[in-house]
Design a protein that fits this description.
The complex is a heterotrimer of chains A (119), B (86) and C (246).
Chain A: H1 2-26, H2 30-52, H3 75-106, H4 111-118
Chain B: H1 2-22, H2 26-46, H3 50-85
Chain C: H1 3-27, H2 37-48, H3 54-62, H4 64-84, E1 91-93, H5 103-125, H6 134-145, H7 147-151, H8 154-159, H9 163-186, H10 211-239, E2 240-242
Antiparallel strand pairs in C: 1-2
Classes of the chains: A mainly alpha (119), B mainly alpha (86), C mainly alpha (246).
Chain lengths: 119, 86, 246
């Protein structure tokens, strides 16, 4: 149990990333592809937070604990993840806006049909 | 105890991520993504990252699915208008 | 490239990537390990500057320059969306018909809107003390406003959401962040260095020097960015119609 637990979170992050990539490559709908990309993004959050975790640690917020009394998890990776979640959402919005433009100009959501249109 | 909680949350996240990729209909995928957002928020909280959990809850469970739903609605309405005109 | 060939290529590439990733995972320091050198130093620096929430200290003090980059990405993405989703020449607006809303939905939504808004603002304001901050609180406050769309209808939402003002606020808050950074340069220290203001009493609202100010700027920017984004998508989904000219 414990030996598996040492690597399992990293393996899950890798699995989620590969699943997202599979969805991206086989998608027949651009909106579905954007959703798969956000699944890929999620894997980076899992990996980062798994790297920063410490067994028995507590959140690095001192509004209700005394500094130095408890072991803490790593705040740096949490700060990285936090900003990326919000910025990632706006980038997803930008991609969706591009998809809407493609539908307006070419009238299709299927990436394969788009390639045929271009010739 | 906390290891078991983390394990359960990780497996839930992996299962929902698979479901989100396997669901090919974008409107339904948006719903699965929102469930994924909630499970991720739980996982982050169990990993002692309440800040990140809060942000994931607001963005992953509400904002991203909402944007996807609005795009789907726009495209459906456009198709309906086109078909109605013909 | 045929579909079959592409699937084969994907399978080979995916298997290779999976093998490399698995090998990398086995070499990483074990999950839940005790050695976090950066974390320990970040906590020490945060305590030295009287910021109770270490994550806020990392975001708005120790790595404030990095957050400036994230803000610019956010701003650029919103700008791109506004440009892509603007009303084109061959499109026109159609007023959406007022919709019937079920009584309980209406009552619940109108009850929750103020509570959710206050909650969002609280999360922004207490960013340097408790879990939360500009990024999360901004999203909460902005999405709370859109409960009005559920509870009443689109026109009610448009009335409480002057879009021009939100676009201006978005730009102004990015400028505010820059100006706060430049204040350090003018005072003779470095860009975005947290040395100008007193650090205050630990665990009170005004502690942390520049952290609450930068936090508020980010909160305003994120909130108005999300409002502008959702407004553009809602316009496309509800109001803007293409003309049948072809």
């Amino acid at each position: 149990m414990s030996a598996l637990m040492q690597v399992l979170p990293y393996l899950i992050a890798a699995y989620v990333f590969l699943t997202g990539c599979y969805g991206l490559a086989t998608s027949r709908n651009l909106i579905h592809a954007v959703g798969c990309l956000s699944v890929c993004q999620v894997s980076t959050y899992i990996l980062l937070l798994a790297v920063g975790y410490r067994s028995g640690g507590t959140a690095p917020v001192f509004s209700d604990i005394k500094p130095g009394t408890r072991p803490l998890v790593d705040p740096v990776v949490q700060a990285l993840t936090l900003t990326d979640i919000v910025v990632g959402a706006t980038v997803t919005a930008l991609l969706l806006a591009l998809v809407l433009q493609i539908v307006k100009r070419h009238g299709t959501l299927d990436p394969d049909e788009l390639r045929e249109l271009r010739g | 105890m906390s290891d078991a909680l983390i394990l359960v949350a990780l497996l839930l996240v992996a299962a929902t991520a698979t479901a989100a990729v396997a669901q090919r209909d974008p409107a339904r995928q948006a719903l699965v993504l929102s469930v994924l957002g909630v499970f991720l928020a739980v996982l982050f909280t169990v990993l002692q990252a309440p800040d990140v959990g809060l942000s994931q809850l607001a963005v992953g469970a509400a904002l991203t699915p909402l944007l996807i739903m609005l795009s789907v609605r726009k495209i459906r309405r456009r198709r309906r208008d086109r078909d109605g005109a013909r | 490239m045929s579909r079959r060939l592409r699937l084969w290529l994907l399978a080979v590439g995916g298997a290779g990537l999976a093998a490399v990733l698995a090998a990398a995972c086995l070499e990483l320091p074990g999950f839940g390990g005790r050695s976090h050198p950066y974390g320990t130093r970040a906590v020490r620096a945060s305590l030295a500057r009287h910021t109770a929430n270490t994550i806020a200290s990392v975001n708005f003090d120790q790595r404030a320059y990095d957050t400036l980059g994230e803000m610019s990405i956010l701003f650029a993405a919103v700008l791109g969306c506004v440009v892509l989703l603007r009303q084109a020449r061959d499109e026109h607006r159609e007023r959406p018909r007022p919709a019937q809303v079920a009584r309980p939905v209406r009552r619940y939504a109108l009850l929750v809107v103020p509570a959710a808004l206050v909650c969002g603002l609280y999360i922004v304001a207490h960013g340097q003390l408790s879990p939360g901050g500009g990024f999360q609180g901004g999203v909460v406050a902005a999405t709370a406003l859109h409960l009005l769309y559920l509870g009443a209808d689109y026109r009610a939402l448009e009335r409480v959401r002057p879009l021009g003002a939100f676009e201006a606020t978005d730009a102004l808050s990015v400028c505010a962040y820059l100006v706060l950074g430049l204040a350090g340069v003018l005072a003779g220290t470095a860009f975005l260095a947290n040395t100008l203001l007193p650090y205050g009493t630990f665990n009170t609202l005004s502690s942390g020097g520049f952290v609450p100010l930068l936090n508020a700027a980010v909160g305003m920017e994120v909130a108005s960015a999300v409002v502008v984004l959702l407004a553009n998508f809602l316009d496309q989904a509800v109001e803007i119609v293409e003309e049948e000219a072809g």
